[in-house]
Structure formats: C-alpha cells, structure tokens
Specification:
- The structure is a single chain.
- By secondary structure, this protein is of the alpha+beta class.
- It has one domain: Nucleotidyltransferase, domain 5 (2-Layer Sandwich), CATH 3.30.420.
- It is 37% helix and 19% strand.
- It has a 4-stranded mixed sheet.
- The protein is globular and about 45 Å long.
Length: 118
Amino acid sequence: MALTKTQRRQRIKNRIRKTVSGTASRPRLNVFRSNKEIYAQLIDDVSGVTIAAASSRDKAFSDQKGSKTEIAALVGQSVAEKAVKAGITDVSFDRAGYLYHGRVKSLAEGAREAGLKF
C-alpha cells in the first residue's frame, strides 16, 4: 500500500533528525506547520531545553493582515530577534519533513534577514 501524507512526512522527518541535532552553541531551529498557523522554536537537544519560540498565534501577529506566507516571514524574524538577544547567531535548520517551499522557505528567509546563519 502507498504511504499517506503523514506517514511519508514522518519518514522524511526521521531521516532528517538522524543528522540534525541542536547544542547550546548551535541550537536546532524547528518548524511546525499546521493548516492555519506556523510555529518555530530553537531547541538545545543536549539539555532538552527550548531556548526561544515564536508562532503566528502570538499576540504580536494577531492583528497582522496578509497571506500565511507573509506572516511566516514575520515569525521567522521574530524567532531570530529572540535568538540574537540570547546571543545565538548560528543554528541548524530542521524543516521537520516539510518541503523547503512556501511557508517553510518564507520563515527561513525571514530568520536569515534578521541575523541567523544556517
């Protein structure tokens, strides 16, 4: 039988997570995309701590108008600003099995513009 979308994404996610890991000096920038919202967080996998997080559900974005792709870019900038405040500039990007396209790409480019390197 063919794989469902979620099973396929889970396989890709597992393949990515074998190689991508976050440390305190270079955390993992994880992205989760639902149908309506987008979430990003910086994770230190060694100690199991979330360093910074941002999402389109934050109060700063509740009054924003625009497409989901435009809002994803703002979320990327927001998480990058929080990371720079915490003294982090280098991250490992974890797209979590999603294609690097659309909202995921927009979030990544927004984070790069705000000062993150990956």
